[in-house]
Design goal:
This protein is mainly α. It is built from seven helices and no strands. The protein is elongated and about 65 Å long. 21% of the residues are buried.
Length: 224
């Protein structure tokens, strides 16, 4: 009976120690940062994607053709004050917006791939850090906690743009004509703003991972 009780208590202690050990691994600052970054990556994977036609400007040529036809019919058809954009300028502004989104998407794609590479390095560094029995000092813990909050904030900002870029572009493309050019331009200007949020958020998470990896690498490989 005593032997059974001893074995039972021993197993319970082992389980408790294992749970505590795992808890420390996953609930310490580095574990929380890992989960926050993982959430950020999942958000970028959920972003609405560009289709083959999203950023084409072929349909916008209809604006130009319609504009030129109207000008031929009446020289005063588009008479506006000098403070306002001409129809032609608005057409070019729409094209510029699409080109801007295209350029930002290239930057975004590069940063997303960089984040994935940095995150893989981060997980290896954390594993080696724990394996070596190293710890963060209080100042480093505070810095990592601030990183966690910032990554979460960037993740929320990125998530908030879902449906506001390429879905918005597709909706704007359905009404490309002179009558609705103002509405299209307003919509696409907002699209550019949403794209800026995506690029800035992903870039910042990438910077944070770079900084944390540098910190861990320094602790794993201290200079003599």
């Amino acid at each position: 009976m005593k032997k059974i009780l001893f074995i039972t208590v021993s197993i319970a202690l082992i389980i408790a120690m294992a749970v505590t050990f795992v808890g420390c691994n996953f609930n310490d600052e580095l574990g929380k940062l890992q989960r926050a970054v993982q959430g950020s990556i999942e958000s970028t994977n959920s972003l609405d994607k560009a289709s083959a036609s999203d950023l084409e400007s072929d349909n916008i040529s209809l604006y130009v053709q319609e504009y030129e036809a109207e000008v031929m019919l009446s020289a005063n058809a588009f008479a506006i004050s000098s403070e306002e954009q001409t129809i032609g300028q608005k057409v070019m502004a729409v094209i510029d917006c699409l080109d801007y989104v295209k350029a930002q998407q290239t930057i975004l794609d590069q940063d997303v791939e960089s984040i994935k590479a940095q995150f893989a390095t981060f997980k290896v560094n954390v594993k080696e850090f724990r394996k070596s029995g190293l710890t963060l000092d209080e100042e480093e813990k505070i810095a990592v906690i601030e990183y966690i909050d910032e990554v979460k904030a960037q993740k929320d900002a990125i998530t908030a743009t879902i449906g506001k870029v390429y879905l918005a572009i597709r909706e704007a493309r359905q009404s490309y004509n002179i009558a609705s050019i103002d509405e299209a331009l307003v919509a696409l200007t907002e699209v550019c703003s949403q794209m800026d949020t995506r690029v800035a958020g992903v870039a910042r998470v990438n910077e944070i991972l770079t900084e944390v990896n540098a910190l861990l690498n320094e602790k794993l490989n201290p200079t003599i």
